[in-house]
Amino acid sequence: MIRNPHLSDTTAAGTASDVAVEWDRGNDQWWDWYMSLADGPAPDGPLVDPPAHDPGPLPSDDEIVAELAVAYPLTDAQIDKFRTDAFVKLPGVLSPGAVQRLRMRLRTLLDEAVDPEVGFQSREMMWLEDDLVRAAVLSPRIGGISAALLGTERVRLYHDNALSKEPGAGRTPWHFDAHHFPLDSPEVLTAWIPLQPTPREMGPLAFARGADVGNLVADLQFDKHGTSYDRGVSEVFRAQAVQVEDGPFAAGEVSFHGANCFHTAGANRTTKARVVLANTYFADGTRVVPSPTMVSGDWRKFIPGAEPGQVVASPRNPLLEPCVA
Ligand SMILES: O=C(O)CCC(=O)C(=O)O
Fold first, then answer.
1. Which Pfam families does this chain map to (predicted)?
2. Other CB atoms within 10 Å distance of the CB of residue 24
């Protein structure tokens, strides 16, 4: 067994599937580790230019706040799809101009905090520092969609996440978020908001269709050192003909995936970074799991003061004001 270089002596100890200890490094180092578990080589061959895109006139901050205060016309069919498939992709949640403004802002926030050499760049908790990001992360429009999809009155924020997959960066391994988040409820989802049109070559988020597909891989051993878990999930899904939705995202299209949804993402084979704002929300009243593991990263940063078994309701987990059509 080759020891994973991103792990400390403590997190590397035990068998390859032993994740019982808590993570003892930062969340950016957590992402470096997690991305190293993806199977397959880094992309080769020349990177391609994505198609040109004109987002039109750029809205002001106030116009974006106003846009995101209006309810999204979510249909019963879309809610049913989320429940059956474990994810749903919704067109036109943001205007192309708002997407472009958020991309510019996240780029600045990433560039001031992240090593430019890192292929998969991340930053969390930006909503505490930046008004425009806060408007998007706590928006009634996205809060309303999230609450309706989860079938709950109101949701709280777990964290925001800027994710930039740089040109040439490799795959995201297959995983499901209930493995990550130390939240003791299936009523948890992530709004994955790509901040540019995202063609297949850029590595859009891709989803295994079906709320129960996790049962097919429940016996696979997680591998904290290498790529065998990711490879194993791919092999089972292929053998069982699990449908994978890996299509492109238009500007403003947003996916919502539940905590048990298996998902992955391809490499970015384009010359442009794939920038995403990924916000995770959970049903009000949710508790911390009894024993968070190293796969939860530095979770105390996101829910300070909430200990295992306790309800999560810290000031960093505000309730969103939902608006529903
Ligand atoms: O953006 C990616 O490649 C992975 C993101 C992800 O897994 C998530 O937001 O749940």
1. PhyH (PF05721)
2. 13
